[in-house]
């Protein structure tokens, strides 16, 4: 089951990279070889930084990004993170269609 969830998460990362070519290199670097040694501390720092949202540099955007990075190595998070990405992609495309319709 976790292999299926990993493939689903990888497909969502790929779709995000296809939608935004600027993110493609970043996604490849995060998923790449450095592995758990860099990803887990990076994810935890992002999540902790999100709780410091009252400071100018930090923000709540860091929490979902940290969970996204952590889901690569933590199978427990994969289903919910990939489902969240799917929902966000659908809402984004609906919003874009509505914007183009109003033009």
Question: What would you note in describing this structure?
Answer:
Helix 1 packs antiparallel against helix 2, helix 1 packs parallel to helix 5 and helix 3 runs antiparallel to helix 4. The longest helix is centred in the C-terminal third of the chain and has 25 residues. The chain has one domain. It is 79% helix and 0% strand. It has 5 helices and no strands. It is mainly α and 103 residues long. It comes from Plastorhodobacter daqingensis. This is Tryptophan synthase subunit beta. Keywords: Membrane, Transmembrane, Transmembrane helix.
Characteristic terms for this protein:
single chain; 103 residues; mainly alpha; 79% helix
Task: Explain the layout of strands and helices.
Elements: H1 2-19, H2 21-31, H3 36-50, H4 62-73, H5 78-102
Helix pairs in contact: 1-2, 1-5, 3-4
Shape: globular
Helix content: over 70%
From the N-terminal CA to the C-terminal CA, the straight-line distance is: 45 Å
Total DSSP E strands: 0
Largest sheet: none
Radius of gyration from the alpha-carbon trace, in angstroms: 15 Å
Beta-strand percentage? Answer: under 5%
* Count of individual helical segments: 5
Quaternary structure annotation: single chain
Structural class: mainly alpha
Taking pLDDT < 50 over at least 5 consecutive residues as the criterion, the unreliable ranges are: none
């Amino acid at each position: 089951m976790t292999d299926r969830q990993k493939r689903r998460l990888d497909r969502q990362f790929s779709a995000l990279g296809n939608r935004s070519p600027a993110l493609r290199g970043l996604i490849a670097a995060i998923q790449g070889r450095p592995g758990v040694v860099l990803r887990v501390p990076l994810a935890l720092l992002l999540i902790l930084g999100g709780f410091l949202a009252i400071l100018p540099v930090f923000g709540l955007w860091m929490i979902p990004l940290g969970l996204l990075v952590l889901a690569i190595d933590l199978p427990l998070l994969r289903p919910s993170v990939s489902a969240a990405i799917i929902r966000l992609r659908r809402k984004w495309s609906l919003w874009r269609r509505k914007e183009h319709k109003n033009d």
